[in-house]
Amino acid sequence: MQQVADRAGVSLGTVSFVVNGTKYVSPATTARVTAAMQELNFRNNVVARALASRRTRIIALLFPTAGDRFSATTSEFFMSAAERASQRDHHLVLWPVDPAGQDLDDLVSGGLVDGVILMEVRMDDPRVDVLSALDVPFTLIGRTRDSSGLPFVDIDFETTIEDSLDHLVGLGHRRFALVLEDLDGTPMAGYAPHLRAQATFAASTTRRRVHGTVIHSGQGSEGGRRAAAELLAADPAVTSVLIMKEDSSAGLLVGLYEAGLRVPTDVSVLSLASSAAAGDQHFPRLSTMVAPSRELGMRAADALIDQLDGTTGELPHLLLPCELRIADSTAEAPASR
């Protein structure tokens, strides 16, 4: 470090402040120190830095080990959070955890991470209770039943469902189906996004005086095909389907085609909380309520790091709706079926 100090023309203490982040150093001086470190191929010792600052500058994104839940949209959350953490001189690691939170104590009490971001939140999530009891800084990507006292960022599923129905009702549709993942009997039962979407869908279709059916799909393409058969059995006259299950969308389209229905001529299909890239992998290309994954990932990282830096004022409560991207799978309702 002395060589870095000599090269930058600063004291050894100033180099330590820059390396460990323990005291403010002006941007100009920081730039000189950083340049000297690069010229001398200086590599900061993470362990020594942690001992000096009492922080590892590592944060963990906790993801449930139950089932195959890591989708392309989930990856966007993780990558954007990791990029933001790096921009703020932190490292983010993806850490699979038990849905009941039984292994959180080992992660947190070992001092490996400074704080955590919790994803795939359930209405009554035991992991939140464990984290609160451990007194570790955390932020949610999602909401529990009552998140008023918790820091969170989340998709505004209520607004997303309303906007979806606005689009389809504007095209003349009056008979709707909502397809969600079947999580009954699994560790992810009570998954908050599904319950919020289903509750809003039921209330909105009732208020609008239109017909609404909810179908729960199994895993993958085969689950989507079966969901198509089930929804047509429940409502043969359905003209519009909202699906919130990325891995089953292709199977749903196949199932509708096998039933002799054309998308979007006979039935419109709208993908919820997914990405344009995922929608473009289907035929026809899916109209999509695009999830604000990148912004929420960045905001979650900011919310947690602000807590760690002691710069947080009020608890962050951020809700962002999905944005409609119209493609080839939604059209005017058929005159008759």
Can you put this structure into words, describing what you see?
The chain has 337 residues and is of the alpha/beta class. The chain folds into three domains: 2-53, lambda repressor-like DNA-binding domains (434 Repressor (Amino-terminal Domain), Orthogonal Bundle), CATH 1.10.260; 58-155 and 293-322, Rossmann fold, CATH 3.40.50; 157-290, Rossmann fold (3-Layer(aba) Sandwich), CATH 3.40.50.2300. 43% of the residues lie in helices and 18% in strands. The protein is built from 13 helices and twelve strands. The protein has helices at residues 2-8, 12-20, 27-39, 46-53, 72-87, 104-109, 126-134, 157-170, 192-208, 220-234, 249-258, 276-279, 293-309, and strands at 58-64, 91-97, 115-118, 138-141, 152-155, 175-181, 211-217, 240-243, 268-274, 287-290, 317-320, 323-325. A six-stranded parallel beta sheet has the order 2-1-3-4-5-11, with helices on both faces. Strands 7-6-8-9-10-12 form a six-stranded mixed beta sheet, with helices on both faces. Helix 1 (2-8) crosses helix 3. The radius of gyration is 24 Å and the shape is elongated. The protein starts with a helix and ends in a 12-residue tail after the last strand. The relative contact order is 0.13. The mean pLDDT is 90.
